[in-house]
Specification:
This protein is α/β, with parallel strands linked by helices. It has a domain of about 180 residues: Rossmann fold, CATH 3.40.50.300. It is about 35% helix and about 30% strand. It contains 9 helices and 12 strands. The chain has a 6-stranded mixed β-sheet, sandwiched between helices. The protein has a 4-stranded antiparallel β-sheet with strand order 2-1-4-5, covered by helices on one side. A hairpin with a 5-residue loop joins strand 9 and strand 10. Helix 4 packs across helix 5. It is globular. The N and C termini lie far apart (about 45 Å). The structure holds adenosine-5'-triphosphate (ATP). Adenosine-5'-triphosphate (ATP) binds next to helix 1.
Length: about 260
């Protein structure tokens, strides 16, 4: 689904990611992990086609990103930004319906199929009861779930999510992450998401990409890459693992003053 070849991303004089050659296959669920400022959002925006690489290339489905017509790209990848601002009085339903526009090049109005898809997406995110509400009146977590519903309604094989668990309460963090993992397993969708919760990432992801923020990176299956010594190095803080049944739980080591 995604193939990067010697991809290099910089911010000013800093090299964030150096020569990333990376394959993301259909049906995989990747977590991108790294410290604040490591370049995670910059990478995701580049994969979405919103930023130009400084060197190297990105292909989506065998085709270089720059060769994708915008409307076709919008039917292939959906992007959840880390933050958003709502300038106008759209309802939650209208916001989700807007995600159907890439399917309407030959007609102006959405059809009943679009309404059903949008309502289903709102229901999947447990915000169907908010469909008629002005998005500017929603709480942070409700607005986040409407934004994820819009992604689902966009119905793309590739989902790129910048901190999807942001602002969600514990129950919704778990249900949203499980839903993403299920989309990969059952519908062969591909997910690349950024997250700071190692335990959530470990429980739902098949693979992880670690970014050091100085160009270095490490990519691979979760069992190989999400190990305490490697995570400690990449996150700049000692981390221990404890086993709880089948689960590995990551905890930051307490440092005594
Ligand atoms: N236009 C710019 N000019 C200079 N530096 C920039 C610019 N845009 C981004 N940066 C820097 O690039 C670095 C990477 O930013 P990015 O948003 O990708 O980090 P991140 O890993 O997503 O961080 P976070 O976990 O805080 O969301 C940051 O240090 C940021 O300050």
């Amino acid at each position: 689904m995604i193939h990067t070849q010697q991809l290099t991303l910089r911010a000013g004089a800093r090299t964030l990611i150096d020569q990333l050659t990376w394959h993301v296959e259909d049906g995989q669920c990747w977590s991108v992990i790294g410290r604040n400022g490591a370049g995670k959002s910059t990478l995701l925006r580049t994969l979405a086609g919103l930023c130009e690489p400084d060197a190297g290339s990105v292909s989506i489905g065998q085709r270089p990103l720059r060769d994708w017509p915008l409307e076709e790209l919008a039917r292939t990848r959906a992007f959840l930004a880390q933050s958003r601002s709502d300038a106008f009085a759209y309802t939650a339903l209208e916001t989700v319906l807007a995600a159907r526009h890439p399917y309407h090049s030959n007609r102006y109005w959405e059809g009943s199929d679009d309404h059903k898809l949008a309502l289903d997406a709102l229901a999947a995110m447990e915000v169907a009861d908010l469909a008629a509400r002005d998005v500017r009146t929603l709480s942070g977590g409700e607005r986040q779930r409407v934004a994820i519903a819009a992604m689902l309604a966009q119905d793309t094989p590739l989902l790129l999510l910048d901190e999807p668990a942001n602002a969600l309460d514990l129950a919704h963090q778990v249900s949203v992450m499980r839903l993403l993992a299920r989309l990969c397993r059952q519908q062969n969708k591909t997910v690349v998401m950024i997250g700071h919760d190692l335990n959530l990432a470990h429980s739902v992801s098949t693979h992880a990409l670690l970014l050091m923020g100085d160009g270095r990176w490490r990519a691979g299956p979760v069992a190989e890459v999400m190990q305490a010594p490697i995570l400690s190095e990449y996150l700049g803080h000692p981390i221990e693992t404890i086993q709880h049944g089948q689960r590995s739980i990551f905890i930051p080591t307490e440092e005594h003053a």
